[in-house]
């Protein structure tokens, strides 16, 4: 029986790891991260006492480098050391958590765990791709596994500040300081390494993939995984571009122009160069794109956000796809087609991998039920974990693209009520 997450009607959908700011630029953050975590915990067979809880480590050397969170506090990470055959293998998971796209929204973000280590959880459960159990994470369970916390609001990309508002846009410096610390803790001896991330962290994995490769010895096998990071420059239900407007705010507020791919900015505007569809084909390091074709976050906040669905005609549909009429389903199919077109060139490379299932889901690598479990989603008979493992270890090529909705009966769709 597939898992279904249900959320109270009073909660506006955001996503498992993303906070979106209201139309006034600060408003209330519509954030369902905690609610989803609670609901997921009710679905997990493993009792809380059996979960691997990993403590937060602050990067003490970061302060002198100006590598600080939005509020000036130290950045941090959670590390569970590898053992046995995994002692010299490293998996870095970049945390997601949306973006702040105005000065006011970044000021608000300073009061949350997504802008200040003062508010971060002191311990985190490692599940899915971070699990230390072979029966939950068959290929990476004994690796050195790291979750790098996200507190800059621009997918680890900025390098500026707003002195008048005491805002530090230092995502790029945080990335560099964290990598330096992990290299000193043994990553410089890595035989194999995988840079991963989910949602805004999945975008960060794309943005930093080649940089990650350059940090490590030439003999190290390096690959990257982006989970739910394929944010599309899509047309919304009003004919506008809601996500482009949001990303333009991020790029402008944090002055990201100089930090983005120069190969991209030579021929496209900076905002376009924050969209993965304009970046993935230019990445030299082998990469795996894991995404739901009807990404639940993009359905909610890019395709049919409340700001453009003034009549509320999409509210029922985006809460539960079974309530969509035929024209609404066709709109989603057109979105899927645009995603397929965007990855077509990327997928032709023999080094790259693809797993795009026709589900209304978001992050699938961090959740145990969608990563590797008896009823996990599958494509071509393989779970997400098996597919990523096959690709990383070159056991077989993985170009798994699902048929259009509603053919896939293995999905763990997100349903909101």
What is this structure's SSE topology?
Layout: H1 33-43, E1 52-58, E2 76-80, E3 89-94, H2 103-109, E4 123-126, E5 144-148, E6 160-162, E7 167-169, H3 171-184, E8 192-197, H4 200-215, E9 221-227, H5 242-253, H6 262-265, E10 287-292, H7 296-303, H8 315-319, H9 326-347, E11 353-357, H10 368-371, E12 378-379, E13 382-383, H11 384-392, E14 399-401
Parallel strand pairs: 3-5, 3-8, 8-9, 9-10, 10-11, 11-14
Antiparallel strand pairs: 1-2, 1-4, 2-5, 6-7, 12-13
Low-confidence stretches at least 5 residues in length (pLDDT < 50)? Answer: 1-29, 32-43
Strand content: 15-25%
Decide which structural class fits the backbone. alpha/beta
- Shape annotation: globular
Please provide a brief summary of the model.
The protein is an alpha/beta fold and 417 residues long. It has helices at 33-43, 103-109, 171-184, 200-215, 242-253, 262-265, 296-303, 315-319, 326-347, 368-371, 384-392; strands at residues 52-58, 76-80, 89-94, 123-126, 144-148, 160-162, 167-169, 192-197, 221-227, 287-292, 353-357, 378-379, 382-383, 399-401.
């Amino acid at each position: 029986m597939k898992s279904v997450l249900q959320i109270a009607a009073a909660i506006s959908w955001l996503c498992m790891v993303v906070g979106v700011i209201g139309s006034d630029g600060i408003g209330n953050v519509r954030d369902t991260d905690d609610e989803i975590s609670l609901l997921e915990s009710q679905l997990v067979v493993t009792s809380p006492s059996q979960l691997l809880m990993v403590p937060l480590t602050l990067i003490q050397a970061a302060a002198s480098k100006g590598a600080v969170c939005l509020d000036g506090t130290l950045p941090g990470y959670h590390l569970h050391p590898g053992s046995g055959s995994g002692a010299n293998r490293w998996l870095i998971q970049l945390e997601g958590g949306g973006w702040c796209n105005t000065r006011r929204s970044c000021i608000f973000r300073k009061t949350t765990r997504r802008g200040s280590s003062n508010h971060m959880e002191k311990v985190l459960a490692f599940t899915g791709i971070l699990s230390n159990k072979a029966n939950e994470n068959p290929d990476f369970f004994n690796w050195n596994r790291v979750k790098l916390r996200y507190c800059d609001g621009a997918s680890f990309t900025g390098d500026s500040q707003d002195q008048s508002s005491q805002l530090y846009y230092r995502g790029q410096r945080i990335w560099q300081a964290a990598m330096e610390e992990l290299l000193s803790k043994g990553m410089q001896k890595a035989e194999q390494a995988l840079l991963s991330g989910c949602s805004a962290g999945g975008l960060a994995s794309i943005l930093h993939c080649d940089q990650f490769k350059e940090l490590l010895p030439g003999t190290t096998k390096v690959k990257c995984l982006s989970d739910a990071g394929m944010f599309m420059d899509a047309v919304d239900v009003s004919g506008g571009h809601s996500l482009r407007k949001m990303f333009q705010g991020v790029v402008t507020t944090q002055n990201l122009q100089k930090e983005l791919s120069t190969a991209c900015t030579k021929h496209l505007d900076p905002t376009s160069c924050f969209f993965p569809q304009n970046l993935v084909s230019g990445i030299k390091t082998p990469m795996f794109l894991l995404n739901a074709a009807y990404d639940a976050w993009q359905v909610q906040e890019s395709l049919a956000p409340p700001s453009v669905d003034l009549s509320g005609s999409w509210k029922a549909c985006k809460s539960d796809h079974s309530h969509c009429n035929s024209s609404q389903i066709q709109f989603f199919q057109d979105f899927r087609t645009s995603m397929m077109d965007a990855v077509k060139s990327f997928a032709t490379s023999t080094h790259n991998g693809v797993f795009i299932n026709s589900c209304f889901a978001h992050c699938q690598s961090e959740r145990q039920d969608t990563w590797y479990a008896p009823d996990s989603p599958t494509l071509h008979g393989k779970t997400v974990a098996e597919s990523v493992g096959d690709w990383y270890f070159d056991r077989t090529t993985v170009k798994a693209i699902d048929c259009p909705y509603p053919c896939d009966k293995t999905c763990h769709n997100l349903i909101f009520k």
